[in-house]
Amino acid sequence: MADAATGRRSRITPEREAELYAAVLDLLREVGYDALTMDAVAARTRSSKATLYRQWGSKPELVVKALRHQKPVTIGEIDTGSLPGDFHEMVSQSDDCQMDRDTSLMRGLAMAVHENADLLRALRELLFEPEMTGLDRMLRRAVERGEISADNPALEYVPHMLVGALVVRGLIDNQPPTKAFLTSYIDAVVLPALGA
Questions:
Q1: How many CB atoms lie within 10 A of CB 20?
Q2: What is the mean pLDDT of residues 10-34?
Q3: Residue 24 confidence (pLDDT) above 80
Q4: What is the pLDDT of residue 184?
Q5: Residue 134 contacts by C-beta under 8 Å, 6 or more apart in sequence?
Q6: Is 172 in contact with 84 (CB distance < 8 Å)?
Q7: Whether 87 contacts 25, CB under 8 Å
Q8: CA dihedral defined by 28, 32, 38, 42, rounded to 10 degrees?
């Protein structure tokens, strides 16, 4: 099965794949998840619908892989030698404009998952779980270095704190999340909660 998937993937160049993902995200922003169709993606990208299904299998998988592809940073690859450094590096690799666009997309997808179990499953498997694994690795290194206590109850809430800051900034402050806001939030809320 893996060989078949690898063979399928080799038919589309990385450049073409990036172009397809960008088109999917543009359509998603324009019409929302529910109105996004494989027909519309095929038309926008001058592809056949059969090619899209053969390459990605389903609309949820295509959407989530498009989201994953454009992420500027993979948390698991960051290791500056300190937890504050790791968090700051994670934020510094983001872009304010892209962060705002991504947060808007994620808010829209958060609504769509209530109606679509396949989308929720794809988001968990392809986007959230790899990020949680990377974040867990980052926090484990901080525990091993003695920066934070292994029994700190705030450890299990770090993902909630980070995602919450991104999502609710617009609701509470009517402003998009920015690198400056996230850096300040991490220094004022996340690190003190962890005792770092």
A1: 25
A2: 84
A3: yes
A4: 96
A5: 74, 75, 76, 77, 78
A6: no
A7: no
A8: -40
* Sole residue written with tokens 């498997």: 125
Residue showing tokens 């770090």: 158
Q: How far apart are CA 76 and CA 35, in angstroms?
A: 33
d(CA 64, CA 69): 9
d(CA 21, CA 12): 12
User: Would you say residue 173 has pLDDT above 60?
Assistant: yes
CA distances from 189 to 38, 144, 182, 184 (A): 42, 22, 10, 8
The first and second tokens of residue 165, run together, are 């800051």
CA Rg, the chain, in Å?
18
DSSP the chain: -HHHHHHHHTTS-HHHHHHHHHHHHHHHHHH-TTT--HHHHHHHHT--HHHHHHHHSSHHHHHHHHHHHT-S--GGG---SSHHHHHHHHHHTS-HHHHHHHHHHHHHHHHHTTT-HHHHHHIIIIIIHHHHHHHHHHHHHHHHTTSS-TT-GGGGGHHHHHHHHHHHHHHHHSS---HHHHHHHIIIIIHHHHT-
